[in-house]
Amino acid sequence: MKFNYKKTIKVGLAFAIIMVFWTTYDYVVPLLLENTFGLSNSMRGLIMGLDNLLSLFMLPLFGKISDKTVTRYGKRTPFIVIGTLISVALMIFVPVSSMKQLDSAMELRSQIISTEKADYVYVDHQNNEYSAAALYEMLYEKGHENSDYSDHQYLKINGIDSKDAYLKIALNRLDENGKITSDYNKFVESGIDNYASDQVYEKITKNNPGTIAVYMVILFFVLVAMATFRSPAVALMPDVTPKPLRSQANAMINLVGGAGGAIAFIIYTVVLKFAPTNYVLVFIMTAMSMLLILLAFLMLVKEKKLVEECELICTEYGVTDSDDEDTPVNETDTSIGAVKRARFRSFILILAAIFMWFMGYNAVTSNLSIYMTTSLNLEPSLGGLVSGISMGVSAIAFIPVGYLAVKIGRRKSIIIGFALAITSFVLIFLFAANPSSSVAIFFTLFYLLSGFGLIIANVNTFPMVVELSAKDTIGKYTGWYYTATMSAQAITPYIAGTVMDAFGNKFLFLYAPICVAVAIVFMALVKHGDSKPIPKQKKGEIKTQTADEI
What we know:
3 strands, mainly alpha, Growth Hormone, Chain: A
């Protein structure tokens, strides 16, 4: 029994389609909401989370439906094809529905952040003039209400807590002629941007609620379409892969999905570099990429043939998909009922660990573009580059991570991944939370750790869930896996946004590791679902095994 790389890569194209969409969605939609509607962190997080609520029942439902589906193309392929085509047809209208308001919002932002070059006076949208000192005073007052408006919290930590000291710094950041310097811009740029967002919300969004309502309706239908094929697409891997090889297969699937994410990254990085608010072009190119990958999938993957090949291999080596297959709970209670109860407890604990893991990690990913552009003062394209470097370097770990699970087990591997993520987030909180010339480098280096953690966790958590399934329940269990991930993603953006609004953006990286630490506790209690050894011989062959081999 050997791992088939070519087959797994082909099957992984279905997951690549999904990742092209969601990578674009997670990075670009927060920027669209920020620039178009001027929403607060908590409100934006609420909208980013609401789209996941739909998946809570859609993913298990369509996973279960696909388990029962019988067609000449297989039971997963029809969902992948139809779901992709409908999603592509609808997704273009997500940015199109808000184009008019985006133009109005960007015009207002331009007015707010503009300066009169003659005397370097700040002018707001009502043509009220502020001197540099008055602007600092305004930002200082806003800093008491919301630390996003300035780096007042940073100043307070460093002992600068009086208005006089604050304004003195403001004046010192002007040159000898009173002109605004680059140092001045670094100091107040995020504050001005947040003030501009506040004004966009108050002056435009509140007066045009229909625009955001239309946006949400269109988004709803796009997410319905995406939800119809996510569970079937992911369930295809365990359908065609024997149980002992699923961690390695999931690693390869994630690598192919990462390639899809890389395509999306290239698209939005290049487009946003030359047209920072051309979200329509981003979504058009994303849709075209999804269609091309779908075409490759249809040409290369014959689902029914691959399933039959897997069944022959499993029969040959004596590998079964029975949900009763496992070791006894303890030496005194070896009944099937006791084993089932123990497996169910492990199943719940695995889902709980996955839930808390996604509570922490998705809190970061759903706010990443906003954090890098508003807190670290990076351009959208540069922020995307930081994210892309992290994904690219981390992808190197996919294949060795699959083998790591074979050597030390899935549970231990996952705990290591969680620990890396905690380390990453804490380092960012301590050393990469304030704008500086080197912050992008430090942020990228620290964020790489969480990327490795993500890979280790994602490669092994899904196989642990389907390890506890039977042949005819793989789609249903896949749906339950996504119930855990999507329920976390439904609520954590809002909670994280509320934390950021209350304490400052940097506290995102304190909230996240706390969630992941709870995930480690749950995973440490899991007893079932770990890797099984790869059979060394075919069924019927006789070989004496040592205790260590068993």
